[in-house]
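Need the bound structure for zinc ion, inputs here:
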Amino acid sequence: MNNKIPVKLIPALKDYLWGGDRLKKDYGIESDLPIVAEAWVLSCHPDGPSVVANGEYAGLTLPQMIEKAGTDILGTRGKSFEFFPILVKLIDAKGNLSIQVHPSDEYALKNEGQYGKTEMWYVVDCDKDAYLYYGFDHKISREEFKERIENDTLLEVLNRVPVKKGDCFFIESGTIHAIAKGLLIAEIQQNSNLTYRVYDYVRRDKNGNPRELHVEKAMKVTTLDRPQIPYGQPKSDRLAQCKYFTVDRIRLDGEREITVDDESFLSLLCLEGSAEIGGVSLKKGESVFLPASMGKLTLKGHALLISSRV
Ligand code: ZN
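Answer from helper R.:
Posting the output first, comments after.
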């Protein structure tokens, strides 16, 4: 593979019922779907892999490209995982998402045969009165948790957080959470699709059936307390760092040098403005994959970007 050219990616799109049309209208996502709830901008997940837009592998999916080019492009840390480790999404919530929790690796590998999920959210944009749910408001017992799920009063004990643009949340596996309406979010997560739903606002689908809940499993994996990790406006541009991902905010005004070392690939997602790197342009809503060991590159332009790596 010509390791010197950034790989532009076309996202896989999801038209879940709670989504809106802002990703099409405001973020340049092209689609015939009337609703685009999620754009999976960096994805090797079988439910929706991203597709290569440029260079010698144009037209292949990201996992196909990695298979052809070899796993060295993931870097030493990137290829140390059994599966491609991360998934990056843009989410446009016009409606409320269900209250949910994701299991830890320990529980998930033992009981589900796949990895669990830790994720982080960066609030790209939001309505004036937008909020989300992040953990419990205070410590509760397992019995109370169960009772409140059964009698539809769970929301009363959740930590309801009003949000502003630029707020950041680290959602460790086991933390109960939900994105609510009016939020546009960039989500960086472990590459897993394991979600246990505990409450869905007593909604019915188009056939009149409630969505499936996973209360027994959720009871086993949920942390029944207030989250201990700081949240809201980030103290620095290092937004998150854990075993699975390191996420930085780049406020580009002119030029900046970016180094892609041999430990990990790098994903750049443009959220505002426009930029250019290695001869490839990057507009609002677009992303590039930079193979590991690319070395030093110059990022130019006026833009707000999110960089994710392993
Ligand atoms: Zn989640």
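Comments: The mean pLDDT is 95. Residues 100, 102, 119, 177 surround zinc ion (CB under 6 Å).
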